[in-house]
Known about the structure:
Elements: E1 2-8, E2 11-17, H1 23-41, H2 48-54, E3 59-61, H3 64-79, H4 89-94, H5 101-106, H6 121-124, E4 125-128, E5 133-136, H7 145-162, E6 168-172, E7 175-179, E8 184-189, E9 196-201, E10 205-210, E11 215-216, E12 220-221, E13 224-225, E14 230-231, E15 236-243, H8 246-258, H9 260-269, E16 274-278, E17 283-286
Antiparallel strand pairs: 1-2, 2-6, 3-5, 4-5, 6-7, 7-10, 8-9, 10-15, 11-12, 13-14, 15-16, 16-17
Amino acid sequence: MSTRTWQDWSCAVSVTTLAECDLEPAVDEVRAVMAEVEAAASRFHPSDLARINAEAGRFVLVRPLTVRLVELALEVAERTRDAVTPTVGAALVAQGYDADIAVVRARTDAPAAQPSPAPLALRAIRIDRTLHRVGVAAGAVIDLGALAKAYTVDEAIVRITRRRLGPTLVSIGGDLAVHGEESWRIAVSETADAPGQEVTIDSGALATSSTQDRRWARERHHVIDPRTGAPASGTWRTATVWAPSAVEANLLSTWALVDAGGFTVDLEKTPRPVRLVDAGGHVVSRHGWPAEVLESAS
């Protein structure tokens, strides 16, 4: 088994292959997808998304990948009834998250602006599929960060499968997916250095969303409740979900933190194994998540 790990997008990126000869090709695929997605969807660096936000109120000509990512974000917003929405960008900026997290954390005394609800995505965002143009309403800001990360994991797995590489695991931040006939032992925790639980998966994807990570001045964090524009403070502080794709796992894990009620109703319709941690650090497992759970540190 061979592994390559590096830092990008302010998080750890890891590629593991069963066969050593598969590692370099798999890493190449992951890096290629990351470069394409960054050019389409970065909020902090030159990208199509940065131009869309800078020219709010107008259509902007973009690459097909950008159209696909925005379409996917609107599908997520519709499914979650705007609980997980791309229009939280202005709220993130208002909380001080307007640069890479290391820069944001250095501003220890930065005050937060008064929060306000995020605009409804299906009203604020327009797509011209014929001409590959996207526009956002004046005053709104699109953020595709979590979705773009999950999409990258899924697309990398698709390309690795297409190349007929052997069993491979791709992980970016709290999102991971696997390819091939192999069982993988995965450490699940709230943050990289926190205690947690080991589980085994042989297909699909895992995503973890948490209010305990990506925190900065005055206990702010990056998971925004679009109903208020403030950092989410609901029933669950961390959620880990297994699903067939990283995109679905990510939307569910984020939904759990923002709108526990809506998430629970959806999960009853389409059960997925889930591990939840409440405000006191107590772990709850549902829908087939392994029962031997270690209690998280509060």
